[in-house]
Amino acid sequence: MVGAVIVRGEQILVARRAAGRSAAGLWEFPGGKVEPEESPQQALARELREELGAEVEIGWLIGRGEGTAGDRALHLDCYWTRLLGAEPAGSTDHDRLEWVARTDLRGRDWAGPDVPIVETILDGAVPRFRAR
Description:
The chain has a single domain, classed as Nucleoside Triphosphate Pyrophosphohydrolase (Alpha-Beta Complex), CATH 3.90.79.10. It is 16% helix and 39% strand. The protein has 2 helices and 7 strands, in the order ββββαβββα. Its EC number is 3.6.1.55. GO terms for molecular function: 8-oxo-7,8-dihydrodeoxyguanosine triphosphate pyrophosphatase activity; 8-oxo-7,8-dihydroguanosine triphosphate pyrophosphatase activity; 8-oxo-dGDP phosphatase activity; 8-oxo-GDP phosphatase activity; metal ion binding.
């Protein structure tokens, strides 16, 4: 699995899983599954197009979170990401999208695999992108 920590200035996009979805009501960084023929970065760009209708630039890996979904072990690699075009107006998998300050990541009910990424960001990790 891959996730996007989408940054806009000093804010980060967070998403709440919609009712009827696995992990409904929990907050997460948007993303999804890596298909066999894809790199993690290709998968993340595809998932964000499908889920949010967003075109993005994928930056450096932040870290890996781990958790479970039922009896499956999940590994979530999260990348710094920034929008290349319009901001997403909605999501196919989420009932809320919010731009929040880094400190506002605290106090949300996060999906398990996202928790270590939130902690890394709160510990001061800074967005990193390749030079253009």
